[in-house]
Amino acid sequence: MRASAPRRAQRTTASMRTGVVLLTTAAVMSSAGCFGSSEDPSRSGPSRGGKHAEGPAWNTRPSSIASLGDSITRGFDACSVLSDCPRVSWSTGTDVDSLAQRLRSGARSWNYAKTGAVMADLPGQMQAAATRKPQLVTVMIGSNDACRNSVDNMTPTDEFRSVFTSALTRLRREVPKAQVYVASVPDLKRLWSQGRKNVLGRQIWKLGICPSMLKDSDAMDAASTERRQRVDDQVDDYNQVLKDVCGKDPLCRYDDAVHKYRFTERELSKWDWFHPSKAGQQRLAAMAYRRITSP
């Protein structure tokens, strides 16, 4: 009896060691995902500490485009004086390497932009575009909201935000899967600094082109400098609105490249030294294409 006690103790100790090993192995395999559990993401979804499900995927090759905006998108003064020339529009043009041409969606593209349009006109354009159920909507608007007879008449930032939000909401309600490309408002102060180098350009500006920025283009007194700075600041505010509102929509991409681009005199219309020339339109198309087709 005394001799069997040590053997029983040894067997008991061995069994305990085996149990510990099995429990440890099970714990390791479970943590490695070898066993199913109630924490399996494929069954219960992401944990509180995990990543949220990604939003809808961005299509880098949309097959149809509706373009919205103002005279820039209409190709104003790009072909002849004081005339729209939509065939060279950066978005849907056919006589320029436009966005539609690059995406090979030219057969299904529509230009609803209107010369002179301001942000208040965007909801109507958006409604018209929605009837086409486009895969992509391009928006370039805001220059005319800053280009007023005086700085006091520029569209207030809050109003600009409210209308843009409403327009985007309308599109999302009517065409839920439509993607939106929003170009930034061009740097009007940069355009002034380039166009003023041309004597003829300065004379044409006196006819009333963007007076809030271009009036008395040679004047460098304190009042003129302050006026141009107010316009420049307002453009920055508009761009911040476009970025903020667009950023809340998973199918909207804002592009600050237009505002940052250093347009040269060659890329400005030879009729008004303000709107993009054909070369300028092509540059806008290249910037949009890069942003839209990026992963």
From TrEMBL:
Gene Ontology molecular-function annotations: phospholipase activity
Q: Which UniProt keywords apply?
A: Hydrolase
**Annotated region Disordered: where?**
34-64
Cross-referenced InterPro entries: GDSL, PLB1, SGNH_hydro_sf
Q: Which domain of life is it from?
A: Bacteria
Q: Which SUPFAM superfamilies match?
A: SGNH hydrolase (SSF52266)
Stated name of the protein: SGNH/GDSL hydrolase family protein
Origin species, per record, is Streptomyces botrytidirepellens
